[in-house]
Amino acid sequence: MAEERITDQGAKDYKEFLHPVMKKNYGQWKYHEILKPGVLVHVAESGDKIFSIRIASPRLLSTTSIRFFMSVADKYCDGFLRWTTRNNVEFLTDKEENIELIIKAVNDDGWPVGGTGRTASNVVHTQGWVHCHTSATDASGIVKALMDEVFEDFVAENLPGKLKLALACCLNMCGAVHASDISILGIHRRPPKVDYHLLGQICEIPTTIAACPTGAIRQDIVDGVKAMKVIEDQCMFCGACYTACPNMPLADPLNDGVSIWVGGKIANARSKPGFTKLVIPYIPNNPPRWPEVVDAVKKIIQVYKDNGRKWERLGEMIDRIGWAKFFKLTGFAFTKYHMDDYKLATKSYNMSAHLRF
Ligand code: SF4
Ligand code: SF4
What we know:
Strand content: 15-25%
Number of strands: 11
Largest sheet: 5 strands, antiparallel
Bound molecules: iron/sulfur cluster
């Protein structure tokens, strides 16, 4: 047997951290059930059971909050808990009698239990203005404003099916906006502005030109000094150049904003996985509560509640009733921006029943 390599880098093997019941029954699970919103039981072939209690976290957590989660896990879960991709915290226990004790402990501290089954998920989201240099909108700010309104749909099964929510603050899409039921995506609408002041001292011009995935940056001469220019038509506002050269800021308070996409999913239950599709091309940033974005998402959720069939995902419902009816029911405008004008769009057109090129 190969000798185990010990290094001081990289993540440790996750199996070291599994709950003993999960370790013992690894790959031997028979079924799972949702006992109530936020509470699941997984039952193994051996008859062993493990219960998970899911709470929503705001993603950016204080050490005080994390210490509180640890104290609950130590008291009721033998120290076992995990974080999910949608920023939930799940407490894991093999003792059924601990479920209500955990729920009471977290509820008393203000943490809601829910987000499983036919509920709205917690929002998987990104850094926003708090941290990332390429963001076109905020992340935590919009998520807080939205979840204050959608809270009841997180803690109770009010919806036809699962409703996964996502936000990414630029088109690099660190959040799962490509395949969630409702996605909020920050968009830049203007190319980076080249700030010639100090360009030569701060940026390496060849490295910056090489950083552009579309080849939109050209060498230039300004006032007899080597500089760069951006070919606007070739720019897709990705921010890769700003990462290489801080003198090419992409953020634009007047033109940055939010787009809304719907109908994506990763599961292959009932229908194939699918990408989200554009429904609102642009809403200006309106901090601190983004009322237009919150209203638009609530409108989509209401249409889903009124028209969805039990366990039908939002995208499946739209495919059934038709996009034209979805736009009519939501009242959103269908614009030229909904047309696929990507240079390889001919392929998409040829997949349609209506157009052939
Ligand atoms: S989505 Fe864009 S702006 Fe947001 S964290 Fe990722 S790279 Fe940064
Ligand atoms: S934003 Fe992206 S596409 Fe536009 S110039 Fe910079 S690197 Fe190129």
